[in-house]
# Entry
Amino acid sequence: MELNEFVAHFAEQFEETDQSVFTPQTKYHDLDEWSSLIGLSIIAMVSEEYDVALKGNDVKNSVTIEDLFNIVKAQV
# Structure
């Protein structure tokens, strides 16, 4: 499981935000397009791509994409 691959999958959940915005250090809650619906999309993507069941609090309490990646990686 690679961090850059995770960032790319994460970025695919956003339709209006330019892909260049997404890095491991991106604070995704600060993005204009961020919403609870995208949060659910992230949970679904992680389940499908990595077979990991994230909880809403995992998404809510993570600050950066890398924080979320580390939670997923610990469960793979």
Remarks:
- The chain is about 55% helix and 0% strand.
